[in-house]
């Protein structure tokens, strides 16, 4: 039997939500344990229930295979040391690159806003004849595209109405 795909959204029924939480929490804890045993990985897992109850798992194996109690706190400290060492420190080169990127983005935004105003018919006083012709061509293409879509929608509506008329005629003839 194949299961249907579960939609990822909050379960409205409180009882169903609690049952799902318990089942998935247990499955997650089991997977964490399996990962630590099968791959000899140091695994730590922290889960808080909707009511605030803590559930945790910390692996208890070392690289040599000798069992030892690795506390959750030790794993968290190791994580903190690792992330502290790998924090990207902004260098002058990175800062300059970001400033250049911001400047380029600001220019693009200004250009796009000016183009939008021109397409809306605003700020055309400073446009050359060539720019006005380009805007006119763009608007003609847009109108053409809009008319084609409008015709398609009308055609679909006509087909739906014809089907409805046909259905109603068949119902009346019964």
Which features does this protein show?
174 residues, mainly alpha, two-stranded antiparallel ribbon, 4 helices, 64% helix, 6% strand
Blueprint of the fold:
Layout: H1 14-39, E1 44-48, E2 54-58, H2 72-85, H3 92-119, H4 129-172
Low-confidence stretches: none
Assembly status: single chain
Strand content: 5-15%
Radius of gyration: 32 Å
What does this structure look like?
64% of the residues lie in helices and 6% in strands. By secondary structure, the protein is mostly helical. Strand 1 and strand 2 form a beta hairpin. It has a two-stranded antiparallel sheet with strand order 1-2. The chain is flat.
What's the gist of this structure?
The chain is mostly helical and 174 residues long.
């Amino acid at each position: 039997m194949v299961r249907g795909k579960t939609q990822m959204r909050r379960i409205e029924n409180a009882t169903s939500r609690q049952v799902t939480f318990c089942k998935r929490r247990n499955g997650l804890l089991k997977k964490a344990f399996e990962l630590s045993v099968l791959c000899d990985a140091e695994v730590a897992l922290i889960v808080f229930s909707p009511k605030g109850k803590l559930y945790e798992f910390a692996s208890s194996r070392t690289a040599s295979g000798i069992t030892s109690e690795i506390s959750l706190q030790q794993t968290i400290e190791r994580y903190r040391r690792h992330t502290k060492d790998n924090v990207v420190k902004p260098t002058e080169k990175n800062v300059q690159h970001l400033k250049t990127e911001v400047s380029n983005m600001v220019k693009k935004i200004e250009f796009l806003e000016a183009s939008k105003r021109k397409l809306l018919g605003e700020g055309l006083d400073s446009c050359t004849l060539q720019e006005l012709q380009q805007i006119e061509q763009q608007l003609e293409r847009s109108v053409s595209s809009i008319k084609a879509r409008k015709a398609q929608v009308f055609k679909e509506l006509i087909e739906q109405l014809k089907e409805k008329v046909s259905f109603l005629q068949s119902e009346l003839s019964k």
